[in-house]
């Protein structure tokens, strides 16, 4: 049996962050570019596509469903769309790796197909809750089986016909909203989704850009079945979730000046900027041109003394993926930072409350985890040995923590960084972080 290779980061303390550079393409928008381009009529050309494992899992799955896709080459794809009804059965289960977005959005898309699909993933993905999508899809008439505890493998059987529903989501989830909008394209009548708090709206924006009428009235989004998509050009901006590590790193470093270019600034994603600014961060934004319905801009960040805050609950879904990095900022702030209403963090690629609490405690920070959040008492970060538990965002957050630590930070279990940020170590190193990666037997 081949030995599984793991990765460890070793980051020397201190260092500076400098430079002007782009971050890799947005993961959420990359997934959607492949999914929507594939079911559109005609060719879709994508640029800025994220060549990370998660978006590549979506791309491979679409190829397995019969879609011809050229690339990626330097972030460019050419997708020969097959139209709403042109997908074909895959001849093996679709392996979606570590990617929750792929699994949840594909559930919606495949629920309306006239063939059987099976969806599987890695150990982390096979533990994540799927009833949040399979329950409402079942109400639309879909036939989806899960494991007894509501996790993958998912088996999707052809349904005699999907019906639109009017669904109030119990949790703020763009993945659930998107899954229902995608199945809504295949349903009779109107599918209406109401969200309890604003979540990322990339699906709505991209559907509209490809010619599907999407009605958005406050928290309600509606699509009508049968509307066809027209292929076109999609420019994927840089991922603000990847930029977040540099925003925090440059804020806590003793010396830094970083400008991140072409970063997506969709207002449903900018919670991290708002939270860091409330903590006292020095972040300047030069909002630029909008690429295919998504605003972008340059972000410049410099070190600043941070203070702890109570994070406003309405910002939680707008920064949901950035909390590991925000917790590192909180560890370096004067006073306490309190987060509540964020129980979703417990069901991400890892339990991000437990895993960050464990790691920050090892680095000498006083933490008080709660079921739905955490209280972090800012202090002095020590060096130490932490574990990323296979969660990309935890690994990159702790790498940045070394900028403010008084000893080296060693982070185990970092191989999944490639899911969202291929080239992170090289880019961070070029910017001034004293980071190296080492192979381990995992
Ligand atoms: C995503 C939505 C969020 C986010 C995930 C990507 C998306 O998940 O955490 O990384 O692309 O729709 P939830 O919708 O489960 O909050």
Automatic annotation (TrEMBL):
GO molecular function, one term: 3-phosphoshikimate 1-carboxyvinyltransferase activity
Enzyme active site: 321
UniProt binding sites for phosphoenolpyruvate: 27, 100, 128, 175, 352, 393
Keywords, comma-separated and alphabetical: Amino-acid biosynthesis, Aromatic amino acid biosynthesis, Cytoplasm, Transferase
Signal peptide bounds: none
Location (main, coarse): cytoplasm
Record flagged with keyword Amino-acid biosynthesis: yes
Positions contributing to 3-phosphoshikimate binding: 27-28, 32, 173, 175, 321, 348
InterPro entries reported in the protein's UniProt record: Enolpyruvate_Tfrase_dom (IPR001986), Enolpyruvate_Tfrase_sf (IPR036968), EPSP_synthase (IPR006264), EPSP_synthase_CS (IPR023193), RNA3'P_cycl/enolpyr_Trfase_a/b (IPR013792)
EC number: 2.5.1.19
Residues forming coiled coils: none
Cellular compartment(s): Cytoplasm
Gene3D superfamilies: Enolpyruvate transferase domain (3.65.10.10)
Pathway membership: Metabolic intermediate biosynthesis; chorismate biosynthesis; chorismate from D-erythrose 4-phosphate and phosphoenolpyruvate: step 6/7
Membership in a protein family: Belongs to the EPSP synthase family.
NCBIfam families the UniProt entry points to: aroA
The protein's assembly and partners: Monomer.
Protein name: 3-phosphoshikimate 1-carboxyvinyltransferase
Organism: Spiribacter onubensis
Gene this chain is encoded by: aroA
